[in-house]
UniProtKB/TrEMBL annotation:
It comes from the Bacteria. Gene3D superfamilies: Spore Coat Polysaccharide Biosynthesis Protein SpsA, Chain A (3.90.550.10). This is Nucleotidyl transferase domain-containing protein. CDD domains: NTP_transferase_like_1. Residues 3-126 form the Nucleotidyl transferase domain.
Length: 292
């Protein structure tokens, strides 16, 4: 089985944090999200995984270097969700491709999605759920019928299985949104979907979303502290949060609902609902920027 992780985007809504780290490498419970994805794919049986990169591509390259079965596709120009798949076509086997957005945390049963696609006659199977904030995929029966806000519409999780002949229809060597192709295909009834309501899924589109993901994963009053982190005895931890590897929390510091990145050094002070990167300029710039 083969898969592709889309990790090339700019993460515009997460600026200025994405100025120093690509969104798929944001730590989730002190581990880069990209590595969470790759581990789950390996455990599920996806022996071949292609990761694309553009924004801060060198960091993605270092993160996947030496991982068995993982190939990197560096794109000098941003190609979009469709253009990246078309660029990957020569590297793909003649079998369906599982495609995942590298900036979404989820606990979907990927093997079940793959099996459903294999057992169907559809050229594409999209994983959909009911999430009003993102409900723009229209369905009729067991197929996708269109795109746009409408009664009964569902939300695309960013996870899908695509046949290679569909990827071959994408224009080569230019930016292209895969949804633009799906708009043409939907009236033909060749896009199926899997309903995955109730499965843990969280977009990391904004700083508030990123913190909310940790709140949901950790629960109230819970902290995950890396073994190599140094937290002063007089530091106070409230709410929820994570402290990454080799991070240093100074005496007298108070943290509440915070995620402290690896290697960060946090001076004395009070920090609430913050992403703390360890970059003094950035951390000062974003003080108070994340709202409840």
């Amino acid at each position: 089985m083969q898969a592709m992780l889309l990790a090339a985007g700019f993460g515009t809504r997460l600026k200025p944090y994405t100025d120093i780290r690509p969104k798929p490498l944001f730590p989730v419970l002190n581990r880069p999200l990209l590595l969470w994805h790759l581990e789950r794919l390996r455990q599920t049986g996806f022996a071949r995984v292609l990761v694309n990169a553009h924004h801060l591509a060198g960091q993605i390259e270092r993160a996947v270097a030496g991982l068995p079965g993982v190939q990197l596709q560096v794109e000098p120009e941003i190609l979009g969700t469709g253009g990246s798949l078309r660029e990957a076509l020569p590297r793909l086997a003649a079998e369906p491709l599982l495609v995942l957005n590298g900036d979404v945390y989820h606990e979907l049963d990927l093997a079940a999605l793959w099996t459903q696609h294999q057992q169907s006659t559809h050229a594409v199977t999209m994983a959909l759920h009911d999430l009003p904030r993102f409900n723009t995929v229209q369905v009729r029966g067991r197929t996708v019928s269109g795109f746009g806000r409408a009664a009964g519409a569902l939300a695309f999780t960013g996870i899908q299985v695509v046949n290679p002949e569909i990827i071959a229809r994408i224009p080569a060597a230019r930016f292209f949104h895969i949804i633009d192709l799906y708009r043409q295909m939907a009236p033909l009834g060749c896009i199926g979907y899997a309903r995955v309501d109730g499965v843990f899924w969280q977009d990391m589109g904004t700083p508030a979303d990123y913190l909310d993901l940790h709140r949901r994963l950790l629960g109230p009053g819970a902290w995950r502290i890396a073994e190599t982190a140094l937290v002063a005895g007089s530091a106070r931890l409230a709410g929820f949060g994570c402290i990454g590897e080799r991070a240093v929390i100074a005496p007298g510091a108070t943290l509440s609902d915070c995620v402290v990145w690896d290697g960060a050094s946090i001076p004395q002070g009070c920090y609430r609902q913050r992403i703390l990167t360890g970059d003094p300029r950035l951390d000062s710039q974003t003080q108070g920027a994340i709202q409840p």
